[in-house]
Specification:
By secondary structure, the chain is an alpha+beta fold. The chain contains 10 helices and 7 strands. It has 2 domains: 2-102, Ubiquitin-like (UB roll); 105-236, Orthogonal Bundle (Fumarate Reductase Iron-sulfur Protein, Chain B, domain 2). The longest helix is centred in the C-terminal third of the chain and has 20 residues, at 217-236. The N and C termini lie far apart (66 Å). The structure holds FE2/S2 (inorganic) cluster.
Length: 241
């Protein structure tokens, strides 16, 4: 089978404008999109830049856009694609460093703002806490996130509002809030009770559509909204301080 790859190229240090470069690729074997890119780089153009590491849909580093779809290049089978012409572009909403490599710094910065780690109290630290299976079931969905950045890149809010943390960070916060070992103070959640946090989401669910791990981050954002409203009401009526 023969494929035509139209690959986005741009080196900010050398090119005035981005452009698409054509590469022909032929194979009789089953290959992933990532394997095809690796062969193109090895045999046709060693300057082609893209990220990858695990090659098994675990590390999240090979996320890109092909024929308009956001996904991990290592989990896409060439033979399963409907078209033999494949247009490959870098993730939008992030600055291009070279070709398909984007600067993930804003994504990681947003993640760091939600304090993505457990806050166990003294008792849990000293005695531990055995998690029941049904408690785990509630957070498995969010634990599956591999931080590929697809949800961040597809989000129209991220593209127009630099304050917005993005779906991955907010869903990750919900993952910890829902964890019975996490005893973070309510004040930690007030940082996302803003337009840059949970109230910025347009609820168009693009993040749910593109997530390669079926995390459905918008579900987490909705759940955080509900929690914030309920906790606020409890405080207003004096059930909690
Ligand atoms: Fe790790 Fe694709 S190379 S997810």
């Amino acid at each position: 089978m023969e494929y035509l790859f139209k690959i986005f190229r741009y080196d900010p240090l050398e090119d005035e404008h981005p452009y698409f470069q054509d590469f022909f690729f032929e194979t009789k074997e089953k290959k992933s999109l990532l394997e095809a890119l690796m062969e193109i780089r090895n045999e046709q153009d060693s300057t082609l830049a893209f990220r990858y590491s695990c090659r098994e849909a675990i590390c999240g580093s090979c996320a890109m856009v092909f024929n308009g779809n956001f996904d991990l290049a290592c989990r896409i089978e060439l033979q399963a694609l409907e078209s033999s012409t494949i247009v490959i572009e870098p993730l939008p909403n992030l600055e291009i460093q070279k070709d398909l490599v984007v600067d993930m710094e804003p994504f990681w910065e947003a993640l760091s703002q939600i304090k993505p780690y457990l806050y166990p109290d003294k008792k849990i630290q000293e005695e531990g806490h055995r998690i029941e299976e049904k408690e785990m079931e509630k957070i498995f969905q969010y634990i599956n996130c591999i931080m590929c950045g697809c949800c961040y890149s597809v989000c129209p809010v991220v593209s127009r509002d630099e304050r917005y943390l993005g779906a991955a960070a907010l869903a990750k916060l919900y993952r910890f809030v829902k964890d019975p070992r996490d005893k973070r103070p309510f004040s930690h959640l007030l940082g996302v009770n803003t337009e840059g946090g949970v109230w910025g989401c347009d609820t168009i669910f693009k993040c749910n559509e593109v997530c390669p791990k079926e995390v459905r981050p918008a579900d987490g954002i909705e759940a955080l909204r509900r929690k914030l409203v309920v906790e606020k009401i409890k405080r207003i009526f004096g059930f909690r301080r």
